[in-house]
Amino acid sequence: MFSTVKDDMSIESTLISKERKNAKFPVEELTNVWDGGKEETELRRKIVKLFEDDPVLKSPPICTMTREERFTKATRKSAYIYRNLIPNNGLHPGSREFEHFSRAMPIENNLLVHMIAFIPCIKSFGSQEQVAKWLPLALNLNIIGAYAQTELGHGSFLRGIETEATFDKKTQEFVINCPKVSSMKWWPGDMGLNANHALVMANLIIDGKEYGMHAFIVQIRDLSTHMPLPGVTVGDIGSKMGFEAIDNGFLYMKNVRIPRENLLNKNSEVKPDGTYVKKASDRLMYGSMVNLRVNLPKSQAIDVLAKACTIAIRYSAVRRQGLLNPGGAEVAVLDYTLQQHKLIPQLATVYATKFAGEGIIKKHQAFLQNMAKGNISDLAEIHALSASFKASVSEQCTEGVEVCRRACGGHGYSQASGLPFLLCKITPSCTYEGENTVLYLQTARYLVKCASKQAADLPESIAFLVQPIQDMKGSITSLDNLIICFKNSAALCVQGVSKKVNEMSNKGLAMHEVWNKSSVQLVKSAKMYVMQYIIGAFVSFVTEVKCSEPIKEILQDLCCLYGLHYINTHSGEFLKLGVLSAHHCTLAEETEIQLLEKLRPNAVGIVDAFDFTDSSMESCLGAYDGNVYERLFDMAKLSPLNKEKVHQESYRHLRPFLLEGRDILEGVKSKN
Ligand SMILES: CCCCCCC/C=C/C(=O)SCCNC(=O)CCNC(=O)[C@H](O)C(C)(C)COP(=O)(O)OP(=O)(O)OC[C@H]1O[C@@H](n2cnc3c(N)ncnc32)[C@H](O)[C@@H]1OP(=O)(O)O
Ligand SMILES: Cc1cc2nc3c(=O)[nH]c(=O)nc-3n(C[C@H](O)[C@H](O)[C@H](O)COP(=O)(O)OP(=O)(O)OC[C@H]3O[C@@H](n4cnc5c(N)ncnc54)[C@H](O)[C@@H]3O)c2cc1C
Fold first, then answer.
1. Which of 101, 156, 379 to mutate to test the pocket of ligand 1 (most atoms within 8 A of CB)?
2. Which atom of ligand 2 is nearest to the CA of 147?
3. Domain residues for 451?
């Protein structure tokens, strides 16, 4: 319907090729560092190719589909992936190949909560027999489960959850009830339409006594008809800001009966006579959330920011707007220092959070190994670290994606840029798996407790909080000094707020009031604590990684930039704490600007090194060839609104006025 408009060789393609020629480092080697080795890169590419070449997984661009189409296609693809593609290619969970799974997945898929929450919960909360019964069924999609914890009335405050599981000794069943509208489960992914089971978090009640939140497997739909079972009201909660392919659901249960064996009973059990047996700490009930807070940031936030950076930096390298040199040619917007100041620190964030996150995953794995031997002494530390890490990463990456989107000017607002999709995907990561403020407060609670202890009684990673403040020797811009600066700031923040808490409580103020009045500083302490962890982990990585000099230099520059950018955007905090002087801050700002200039020629190479395929980004601005304008035009042509040359509705509603206009104009014409 539309004629083709094409340039023989677009200037934009030429510009991006030049950028690549100017890069001062081997891009492929940086990709290997990012992936964790050459073999990992090869393996990832193999898996990604397997998925991308599969005709069943092809679908039209998201921005041309309705919600219904997006849900339908995502379900069809996910069913195929989990039942055919994965088992047929030996990509079993736990295998090395499976690690690259999230990068290979189509841009929209579902059944993810089934895989990342329902299945892990069976493993962590189920006894051996329960795991043996439920796990194979879940892995084969014979049962599909949601993680049903949040209710209409309560998400953060889990002690406030209202759904009840009352033990009926006579029938040896639990009776599940949502006593009020506010008790209805609300939000769980995959639950509205696809799931036939749910892992329901409910208050256990035996003989009128409440035992708190426990995990129950509840069947919600019939396995042959997929109809909701008696007593179950289930459906999709409606359109959201993003995740439109996913059926986040509501679930109202009235006298739904499940067998006694459906209480997942690794940590606590109800005997046939109603005796309650506690086998492990109540806190392990929260273990599923720690698991997700440790493992989700990579795929749901860090990779998302990496994609946004790829789009915004490639586009900024080909988008020419205005003059730097009066009388010269128009420049790429990436040549403006201010554009570099928006985008290059986001690259630093991607690297910092990725490598810090790998450290947390290792710590968590060590914790799980100890837990298997009955030792959960590190639980409080891993909870505090993972809570603030999830909060900080989701916050930094969400802010970063919005910066990238706005840095693309008007085109960043177009769905065709791929950026609104990424923003809507990442923004709920600040809410799900624990709302960020609530998580920072959890970390602060732990830190304040630690502040009253001796260094010898604290975990090694926390002891600095109560040790003497360290002196910085030399320039603030050295990596060692950045660590000292952030550690000192975290220690002073925690000590400061602990003092405030103690003083207020010594004056007789009730603890809950003390806590509320100190909460602004408590959150600041948790943020500074996790920042010192991230910087420390990034510096360790950069120091230890084996790579060529040019790559090392880029990583060191990104690491320094990450610390300095944070200092420069929060300089008031560092000055207030007395950790930095005005002179330090001036130097930090100047050094940041120098680093931007130094990294600028490598910016396109650095995003190329993330190695996202064009189809994994669905972005007209971020495609490898830089051919942005032709792609934008081609995408516009696909808009469903352009199917007909004349849209019938616009014709119908506007025609009377147009006819009036025609008569007036023709009257004017004939008068003239
Ligand atoms: C394509 C799809 C991708 C996206 C998928 C998205 C999937 C999303 C899933 C979800 O969102 S699932 C729902 C997630 N919900 C939450 O995370 C709820 C957040 N709330 C909580 O974690 C807790 O209720 C709370 C905020 C910690 C409660 O605070 P409260 O002060 O009431 O604590 P208590 O319950 O009394 O706990 C006391 C004690 O326990 C310690 N603790 C709390 N959480 C944990 C934990 N996770 N692990 C270990 N320990 C924990 C807490 O620090 C207290 O310790 P003490 O200070 O008493 O020693
Ligand atoms: C896309 C998406 C997917 C989800 N998937 C699932 C799922 O699969 N399963 C599931 O069970 N849930 C799921 N959820 C729900 C999610 O876990 C909750 O929304 C989340 O835990 C936050 O709880 P809330 O909505 O009750 O927020 P609230 O706690 O009501 O937060 C509202 C405001 O109150 C503030 N606030 C709350 N408590 C405090 C406090 N103590 N001190 C200071 N401020 C406070 C918060 O900071 C926030 O500003 C999902 C949510 C989304 C958006």
1. 156
2. 9
3. 288-609
Q: Which residues pair with 167 in a beta bridge?
A: 174
pLDDT tens profile 602-627 = 999 999 999 999 999 999 999 999 99
Kindly identify the ligand whose nearest atom is closest to the C-alpha of 159.
1
Q: What is the pLDDT of residues 61-113, one digit of tens each?
A: 999 999 999 999 999 999 999 999 998 988 877 777 877 888 999 999 999 99
Whether residue 383 contacts residue 325, with contact meaning beta carbons closer than 8 Å, is answered with no
Q: How long, in residues, is the chain? A: 672
Residues 384, 299, single domain; the answer is yes
Same structural domain for residues 293 and 257? no
433 is annotated as an active-site residue = yes
Residue 431: CB within 6 Å of ligand 1?
no
Burial class (CB in 10 A: 0-12, 13-18, 19+), 96: exposed
CB–CB of 352/559 below 8 Å? yes
Sign of CA dihedral 665, 668, 670, 672: negative
Number of folded domains that form the chain: 3
395 lines ligand 2 (CB under 6 A): no
Q: Residue 281 has which token pair? A: 């700490």
Going by C-alpha positions, the residue among 129, 278, 131 that lies closest to residue 206 is 278
Q: Does the beta carbon of 436 sit less than 6 angstroms from any atom of ligand 2?
A: no
Q: Which atom of ligand 2 is the closest one to the Cα of 201?
A: 11
Catalytic residue among 433, 573, 592, 630: 433
Q: What is the largest CA-CA distance in the chain?
A: 100
pLDDT tens digits, 465-479: 999 999 998 898 999
Nearest CA to ligand 1 atom 12: 433
Q: Tally Cβ neighbours within 10 Å of residue 338.
A: 10
Same domain, 338 and 410: yes
> pLDDT grade, residue 284 (50/70/90)?
confident
Residues 328 and 348 in one domain: yes
Q: Give the mean pLDDT of the chain.
A: 95
Residue set of the binding site: 150, 189
Q: Are residues 79 and 226 in the same domain?
A: no
Residue 12 has pLDDT above 90, yes or no: no
For residues 242-255, average pLDDT = 97
Cα 432 to ligand 2 centroid, rounded to whole Å = 6
For ligand 1, whether the C-beta of 281 sits within 6 Å is no
Q: Are residues 352 and 410 in the same domain?
A: yes
Whether residue 432 has its Cβ less than 6 Å from ligand 1: yes
